Amino acid sequence: MMSGYSTLPLPEQAILTLAAVILVTSFALLSQSRVIATIRVFAWQGWLLALTTALVAWDTGRAHLYISALLAALLKGMFIPWLLVHQARKLGILREFDAVIRPGVTLLAAAALVIFCYSVALPIEQFADSITRDAIAFSLANVMLGMLMLITRRKAITQVVGFMAMENGLLFAAVTATQGMPMVVELGIAFDVLIAAVLFGVFFFHIRDSIDSLDVDKLNRLSEVEQ
Amino acid sequence: MSALGWTLLFPLLGALLLGWMKQPQRAAGLNIVLAGLGLAASARLALTVLDQGTLGGGQFYVDAFNVYLIALTALVGFTTSIFSRPYMAHELETGRVGAPRMRLYHASFQGFLFTMQLALSTNNLGILWVALEGATLATVLLVSLYRTPESVEAAWKYFILCGVGIAQALFGTVLLYFAASRVITNPDEALLWSVLNANSAELEPVVMAIAFVFLLVGYGTKIGLVPLHNWLPDAHSEGPTPMSAVLSGLLLNVALYAVVRVKMLTDGALAGGSVHHPQLAGLLLMGFGMLSFLVAGLLLHRQRDIKRLFSYSSIEHMGLMTFAFGLGGPLATFGALLHMTVHSLTKSAIFITVGHASQIAGTQSIDRIRGLISTQPGVGWGLLVATIAIAGFPPFGVFVSEFLLLSATIESWPWLAVPLLTGLAIAFAGLFRHLHPIVFGTRPEGQVALPVNMLPVYLHLALVLWLGLAMPGFIARWFDQATRLISGSGLL
């Protein structure tokens, strides 16, 4: 396994490199505390996803993946970041900070998660060519890091970035492990993501109207056992 | 157009049409008409399937298992739309919602029904995911319809937790597709359930086991399995009551349906038993199911809000069904299918009654709803009888399904009958300690009866009673066909 990377065909090496870069952006998202910077990193991740998809399309010759790449670029690279920046500006929080809770612990936890994802993907190895196993591990790691970001952030807007980053990890899994899902499913997923993005935008204003801030820690009226 | 096409078309049309309708009263009427047409179409579909067997095999697939859920969804959607008219008219009068938001409400209601029918009838596991995520999106603005801080919090929790949960299910679906694409050459067919089921023995067991865990966690969040249930009581209690009725009665069932479909594939792949325990999927379901059942039963005792109380009761019953599907075997599967039906009918009847009760009392707080029977006997008795039914008393259908389940447990895992019976007793006590003063207590001054339509409640309870006393032959055969599909052998 370890020796095999340099003998891989060039496109596959490129895909693996892109996978690693996407993972780096996931770490960057985790440690970034300014709202505007978080959104920018997220947009980069969307473009990288689109690039990977296009590369896989070219490598495997599956034409419908070009459409997926275009969708990823339009939605994740342009529309959603634009929408988030637009909303953040309207809410006046674009330049604000959403402090990372215990950055050291968070990043260590993130590293541990990556190792865990590798151990989940390990048993798959013997049935797949080497790149698939790594791709599954990388994309699962992206999903998990997105989830970690959701947990460690307090502002609704950065939580949404975490949510969408998770979605990026899932799309990455679909592209690299299985050369994309059937077209009808991809379109359905893109539609759901689009609606979700718009609804999130609506929610920022609901949250601000109800608690006068976007700090979701203050959403604490409901509990499992009522007092 | 086929009956299936109409079943899907009416709610879709409704979602588009009702969003534009300015007069709430007219929209409420049209809502009932469209739901009724959907019910008629689904009844036709059910008769066709009963007559000709499995339909479809392309992008849509209807067999004995999902057709009865399609009919059930259409029925509960129809009766809830009848209930929703006077209920939402009262909310409009008291100023809790305005006319523009009523448009959102009706469009979301029909949109939700559409996603449910799509999730049930699709053959494509990817579309199933898209539809279940769509169900969250359709209902999330309903949860926050009143725009109180609590409802916005509940909706945010619902959005984020279900979104995160269902993301795991998408990862599971990708893994499933990965396993399938090594067996099935045509990539467009590799996510079709019927094709996968025919080839399930060849699917890679390691990948399928990992995929199943992700799918279970993902769809399990939507079923409300403990410890993934946190969103459920909040979402059910803060939104308008017709939505609580369809969430509890329909969404949870459809999520469980998705898990059972995937379990059938996983069981096929693991049957060889060389890598993993062949019953891995079943054991996971049993564990999650039992845990949810017991924890939710205990939490029933600590509730102060009547809608939260019955949401925990839903978690408890979903746990029971999950446990039963995990147990497998014809007896437990038959019991679980019956329980899905009777729970959905009874629980939506309860939410309808609770909705009226909290409007009469002007609060959802259990401590302040008193003397329902003396204020409005129809609502009071309705709540009492429906709670008796959900607690599993004979002669109602819930008793029959729980009895079948108990027999199946004693047959294969005798010692699990102990926590099962204890849990049933705990849940029973949890419901009735709250219920007694609510229905029989002294009526507060100034509490008056409201115009209500209890017809849906009586209809649901009569059906549950009928299923408990004398299940008609064609329904029994129907359940038996579904049991045969899921567990391999029938009961009859």
What does this structure look like?
The complex is a heterodimer of chains A (227) and B (492). Chain A has 227 residues and is mainly alpha-helical. Chain A has one domain. Chain A has seven helices and no strands. The radius of gyration of chain A is 18 Å and the shape is globular. Chain B has 492 residues and is mainly α. Chain B contains 19 helices and two strands. Chain B has helices spanning 3-18, 24-52, 64-93, 99-121, 125-143, 149-181, 193-198, 205-223, 231-238, 241-270, 280-299, 306-327, 329-361, 372-375, 377-390, 397-412, 417-440, 455-469, 473-487, and strands spanning 55-56, 61-62. In chain B, a hairpin with a 4-residue loop joins strand 1 (55-56) and strand 2. Chains A and B meet through helix 5, helix 6 and helix 7 of A and helix 5, helix 6, helix 8 and helix 9 of B.
**From the structure provided, what is the oligomeric state, counting identical versus distinct chains?**
heterodimer
Query: Separation of termini of chain A?
Result: 56 Å
Mean pLDDT of chain A: 85
Number of helices of chain A: 7
Overall morphology of chain B: globular
Number of discrete domains of chain A: 1
- How confident overall, as mean pLDDT of chain B? 91
